Amino acid sequence: MRFSRYFLYTLKENPKEAETVSHRLMLRACMIKKLASGIYSYLPLGYRVIKKIENIIREELDKEGCIELLMPAVQPAELWQESGRWDYYGKELLRFKDRKNGDFCLGPTHEEVITDIVRKELRSYKQLPLNLYQIQSKFRDEIRPRYGLMRGREFIMKDAYSFDVDDESCDKSYWQMYDAYTRIFKRCGLKFRAVEADSGAIGGNYTHEFHVLAETGEDTVLSCNNCSYTANIEKAECLKPEKVNDNIEMKPLEKVETPNKKSVEEVSEFLGVKPSDLVKTMIFKLEDGSAIAVLVRGDYEVNEVKVKNHLGVAILELADEETIENVTGGPSGFSGPIGLKIPVYADYSVLNMNNFVVGANEKDMHFINVNLGRDFEVKEFADLRLAVEGETCPRCKKGTYEQFKGIEVGQVFKLGTKYSKAMNCTFLDENGKERYAVMGCYGIGVGRTAAAAIEQNHDENGIIWPVNIAPFQVILLNLEVKDKEFTEKIDKLYQNLLEEGFEVLYDDRDVRPGFKFKDADLIGIPVQIIAGKKTMAEGLLELKVRRTGERIKVKPEELIEKTREILENLRIEEENR
Question: So what's the pLDDT on residue 205?
Fold first, then answer.
């Protein structure tokens, strides 16, 4: 492809709206163009990367016997009402009516549609296992779309759905997809971790997320430094302590004034105690309008996902000021468990605390010397807090958590019979008994994978594409375009590279060499072949490896072999890092 004929117009300056590296560089490299908030066009250079990622996905899923199809983006409300998600999913589901006043939505995911397709054809256990996938645009009406392709409203996603006869078979499908994902992201040249996670709005009872490791990642990942346990911060487990009967003397309960002191830091400093000597009381509202209290040690944070999962509720939200006053009798910032008439749950971190500090449910007042049992009762103890770096791993009980930042690019779910039961997707087993199909679902954000690759692979000059997903393998820079005889030689070199099977972007523009060098670094093609009069007079060409900056001079007859060697070495290194 000749640069002069390609739709590629780079920017020198960073766009003002771009907040992350990938967003900035994709705009500057003319890979994407904003159409509306969170909605982007994929321009030719960017779309080549997307197609590379899609092809890797197809190859690896096809190896596992997955079958590709394509489902509609527009979905009828009836299917979502049947599954129970029409009201549950929230405002991210873009709903609209057609001319006949029928309710529809733009699909953010396709569990309902695929279940409807399969239930109409599934009769016998002999038709299973089955795994169907598509690569298609999705739409989720994010309240704050940002970071370009990292958090858009419209995005390209690979979603796959497995159907099995029982849990054991579903487990096999799950781990086959897990292994396929591992191969996919390795082939994309990414450093990543597979982590245990919460299933969120998709549902199901077991899931892993695949995170590309990058300092700019939105998600926090905790990993044991001794065993293989890795989880995102919403899911990471905390070690349950043993109950200690230390017979510590319970001091007399005392109410003290704490004028204008609300936060843990303010109260602990005012009272001359450590934050770990306080217990925070968080009031939450449930979907039925009732309220609960959750207690956690002052130096920790409540994990709302864990609370929600522990209670088995669909909706959980922090209580508003009015609810807090109605429940506790006092303003927010001074809530405490003593005297509450609502259920009180406590994190394990509170289990062994004695003579601690809590809010007094009264403005500017706290209780000191508070003790469990004597002063209040807890309905249930559980793991209800966010895990933190440095604490003991709950699995091996030897290692400690290390913290990483990650960008989620894929997720695998074990759904069980959540959708097959709701939508009556059944089959007859070998004994003629009707049973529900056991399902799994598996997603990869294709555009997000491209953006994450940039977040992980860039320098101050631009993108550094991994070989397997680079838009082109080679960029050929003609530094003497105005010299007709010289250009004829480089044109022949370009044709030779194409005939040898290389994907080449030929920079034949009549611009200064400096512009060509900057653009070549910006768009990040793995190998640059630099053709200038000086080196050509010496009977040589210069190769530059974008990832390392290494420059190599080679004879024209050695160019093909050396370029292949560089690309292959880069590919092996990227797939194994």
Answer: 60
The secondary structure of residue 124, as a DSSP letter, is B
Phi and psi torsions of 484, nearest 5°: -60, -45
Q: Which of 236, 265, 240 shows the shortest CA–CA distance to 352?
A: 240
Neighbours of 431 (CB within 10 A): 7
Check if the beta carbon of residue 414 is closer than 8 Å to that of residue 206. Answer: yes
Q: What is the DSSP string of 203-241?
A: --SEEEEEEEE-TT-SEEEEEESSSS-EEETTT---PPP
Distance CA 130, CA 132 (A): 7
Contact status, residue 299 vs residue 265, Cβ threshold 8 Å: no
Please, which residues bridge with residue 436 across strands?
426
Q: What percent of the chain has pLDDT over 70?
A: 98
**Which residues of the chain, if any, have pLDDT below 70?**
199-205, 245-246
Query: Contact 206/200 with Cβ under 8 angstroms?
Result: no
Q: How far is CA 206 from CA 167, 216, 238, 414, in A?
A: 12, 27, 18, 5
d(CA 245, CA 146): 51
What pLDDT sits at residue 197? 85
Ordered domains of the chain (ranges, CATH)? 15-237+402-455 (3.30.930.10), 254-382 (3.90.960.10), 472-575 (3.40.50.800)
Q: Which residues are paired to 280 by β-bridges? A: 296
Q: How many CB atoms lie within 10 A of CB 213?
A: 17
